[in-house]
Amino acid sequence: MINGKIGTAVIGYGGMGKWHTEKMMRDMSERMELVGIYDIKEERCDLARENGIYVFSSREELLADERIDFIVVATPNDLHKEIAIQAMEAGKSVMSEKPVTMSSEMLEEMIDASKRTGKLFTVHQNRRFDPDYLTIKKIYEANTLGRLFNIESRVCGSRGIPGDWRQKKAQGGGMILDWGIHTLDQILMLFDDKKLLSVYNQVTNITNDEVDDGFSCELRYEGNLTVHLYVGTSNFIDLPRWYMQGENGTAVITDWDLNGEIVMVSDWENRDAVPIQAGVGLTKTMAPRTDDTIKKYPLPYVEKVSFSAESRLYNNLCDAIEGKAEPIVTHDQQRRLIRVVEAMFESAEKNEVIKF
Ligand SMILES: NC(=O)c1ccc[n+]([C@@H]2O[C@H](COP(=O)([O-])OP(=O)(O)OC[C@H]3O[C@@H](n4cnc5c(N)ncnc54)[C@H](O)[C@@H]3O)[C@@H](O)[C@H]2O)c1
To answer: Are 118 and 236 in the same domain?
Structure first.
């Protein structure tokens, strides 16, 4: 501790490591004191110094500093386990960036280290606080649409995978371990009380052969609920971020700016329609509903995030380090997440449905 504040450090000062230092110095400065960072790249160390941050000369030097209580691991994915375990053994609480690590076996080693050392170990699943997700959660919890039978969560990019470690399998590259982890964590938390029955996943390799640059996954839950997760990096036209169907209505969120709407049927009995011309034929079944049998509503209000709104996770972290709260992101949640990720890889490899 430093003057009653939690002493912190970040290992890996890339895009996300820098973000964590800004979080600690700007929003969390009343509870945290950033002691320094360590990165293997000299240009990243120079940038840290320019930003007024102390740079340790080695990981060992950083871990030996007794002022540091808490460490964020923000390196490429293959290094999370090794660094997190070393940090806990050096007496530090740890938050790993997502994905926590690359297999259930590796995760158990990390959890064992936490038990052995008595040190807090959690993961930065920040997208549990995304406003688009919180909007979907609100619609689901209010049972707005009636019995839910389908939900689709899609993230569309058009730049392939960045040309760094994210393209290397050995370093934990690919979209399943990247955006997949976020979208899957959101769904597993949303349907926390439901039993997952099976997973079927297919991957794409459009821009490279080594790692998946996208995937399409179907999760089947008890109660005839289907979830479609999709991540793409060759989408020059975006698909809606969320599409949700219940027996009495449909909700759509088209983008991260929360554009979208809810359409509810107001007169289910009024099914008869005048056939319409569609393509070269007629259709009655697919004739659009007339305005007198539906009602349109705006999406429910959730607070839009700002940089500081995301401090909920960080404040919980401080409480947990101080022994006043349980961490929001638990070991069991991570165990379940990684198990489903493993099922996604297995399903894609065998082209089979994986049952739970
Ligand atoms: N939670 C989120 O929203 C979010 C967003 C982006 C990335 N991430 C995660 O954050 C982690 C880092 O991603 P990024 O986008 O910052 O990548 P990045 O490539 O920008 O940064 C990684 C940094 O780690 C450094 N590094 C590599 N090996 C090291 C070592 N042995 N010791 C110290 N530093 C080392 C690199 O030099 C680099 O500066 C990944 O696990 C990624 O999945 C999370």
So the answer is: no
